[in-house]
Amino acid sequence: xxxxxxxxxxLEDLKRAVAQADALAAQKSNFLATMSHEIRxxxxxxxxxxxxxxxxxxxxxxxxxxxxxxxxxxxxxxxxDDILDIAKMDADKMELDVFEVPVRLLVHGTLEALAxxxxxxxxELKAAIDKDVPFVVIGDPKRLRQIIMNLVGNxxxxxxxxxxxxxxxxxxxxxxxxxxxxxxRFEITDTGIGMSKxxxxxxxxxxxxxxxxxxxxxxxxxxxxxxSRKLVELxxxxxxxxxxxxxxxxxxxxxxxxxxxxxxxxVELPKLEGISVLSVEDHPQGAxxxxxxxxxxxxxxxxxxxxxxxxxxxxxxxxxxxxxxxGLPDGLGLDLIKEIMQIRPSMGLVMYTVRDDVGLSHxxxxxxxxxxxxxASRAGLGEAVKNAARKAVRLSNDGPRKILIAEDTDSVRDIxxxxxxxAGAKADFVHNGKxxxxxxxxxxxxxxxxxxxxxxxxxxxxxxxxxxxxxxxDRHFPVMVLTADVQMAQRxxxxxxxxxxxxxxxxxxxxxxxxxxxxxxxxxxxxxxFTPSPIEEKREGLPPAIDLEAxxxxxxxxxxxxxxxxxxxxxxxxPLIEKIKKAQNENDFHNLTEAAHSLxxxxxxxxxxxxxxxxxxxxxxxxxxxxxxxxxxxxxxEFERVKKAVKSLKAA
Length: 652
Hints:
By secondary structure, the chain is an alpha/beta fold. It has 23 helices and 19 strands.
C-alpha cells in the first residue's frame, strides 16, 4: 500500500465502506427473515382452509384438487424454510449441533429416502464408502444429511439415465488434515447433462441455476446449492464441482471431523426415567438400536414389528410415547398414528422414518405428531421422545374452559374459529392486547392465545403485563403465543418472554387438539367405542396385491399419474427381482440382504404391502444367512400378481 493510501482520510473512507457493506448485508438478512415471517401469516388461512375442506371428506375430484393445493402449500413452506436458512447464515445466526454421526447409516438412509424421487428405471442410486472411513464421527447429522440430500437431488434432476453415486473417503485434497481428527471427502457423481466451466464458477450463488432454459425445464429456486456451500463452510470445510458438458458432474465437499467409538457420546443424553415407550419397527437391527438407545436413557421400552401388534398393545395399555416407522409390513405408520389418536389421544407420537417427505411431514404436523428422519443421533432420538412425552402430559385446569384469542387479522380469526369449533372448544376473540386485558378481568377464560404483532398493545407487552400482575402471588395464567416467527418456536425463546407454549402459523387442527387436551380444555375421549378401520378389516381376508385405498391417500386419487407411478414401479422392480434370484442362486447373502431391503422399501412406497412383507422376511433371513429359496419363489410369484394388478388398472 502506498503512503497516499495509508492516510487517515482514506482509512476512514475504508471503514465507512465496510460499515455500509455490513449494514447492507444485515438489511438483506432482515428482509429475507421478515418476508418469510410475513408470508407464513396468510399461509395460516390457506393451509387451514385446505385442511378443513379435506376433513369434510369431499368427492374424489375435489379431494384431488385439495391434495394438489396442499402439496403446493407445502412446497411454499419448504422454500420459506430455505430462505430462512439463508437469512440465518448471512446474519451469522446459524448454529450447528454437535452429535454422533453414523456415516454409513447416514448415507444409506439418505439414498433410501431419495429412492422415491428416482424418476426413471434407467437411473441407479449407489453408495461407495471406503473401508478406512470411521463408522461414527462428530458433526451435525441433520445438516450433513441436508447437504447430501441437496447434492443427490440436484444430480437426479439433471440425469436421464445412468447413476448418481455417493462416494465417501478420507482422501482429502482441498483442506488440511485435522491435527487430532480426520478429514472426510464426499463426492456425488452423476451421469447427467454436465455443465460448462463458466456455469460451475457461479453455481453456488443464491438463486442461481445453470441458465434460464434449465430453470424452465428443471425448476427449483437455486437455493439448495447456496445453502450447501454455506453449511460446508460453517463446518470448516470446502465445496466445489467438476463437470464436463454431456458427461456428467461431480459435486464434492470436504469437512474436518473427529472419530469416536461406537459406544461413546459427546453430549449429555436426555433423562427418560419413568417414560414408557412403544416402538413399532420391523427392521430387526433398527428395532434393537431404538430399544438399546432409549433404555440407556432410562425409558421403559416395548418393541413390536407390525401395525397389528402395535395396535393391540395400545389397546391393552397406555404408553407415554409411541415411536413408529412409516413402512410397516402390514400397513403405513401414518395410518397407525391416526388410529392411536382415536384410542389414546393423550399419547405422544413420533414418526421415525428414512423418508424425507414434505407432504408426510405436514400431514404429521397437522396431527400434532413429531416427524424425525433416520438416522438421528441418540441424543436427537431421546429429545424427540422427551418432547413428545412432555406434550402428552395433561395439566390440571380447575378454572374456566373457555379460550380468549387476541388476533387482529380477520381471515386468521375466521380459520381459528372454525378449527376450534371442530375441536369442540369455545372461544372469544379480541383485536389487541388492551382488549384482551379487559376481557381477562371478567374471569371467564382459562387460557389466552395471542398474536405477537397487534395494534395498540402487542403480544409481548400483553404477556409482560400479565406476568407483572402475577408477581408476589402463586397465580400463573397460561398464555400461548400465536406467531409466524419461526425463531419464536424455540422453547427457550418463548419461555424467556413469559409464554407457556408457541403455536407456529399455519396452525393445524391436530396442534390445537393437542394443546387444548394438555391444558384440560377438552376431554381425551378415552371412553369412545372403537370400531376397526377399513384398513384393519381388510386384513381378515387375502390382501390385494396393491392397496388402492393407500394409493389414493398418497396421490389424492387414482388418476393417470398414480397409475403411471405404479407402472414405473414395475419397470424399476423387475431388475431387482432378477438380482434377488441371482444372489440366491450364488448364495451371496450380502447382495441378497441389500436387494431385499431395497425391494421392501420400494414395494411399500408403491403400496404393494404383501410384496413388501415378503421382502422384509427375506431381508431378515438373508441377514441371518438362512436358506431362502422358497421365499424367493414366493416373491417372484407375488411380483407377477402385482404386474397383473397394475395392467388391469384404469383411471378413476
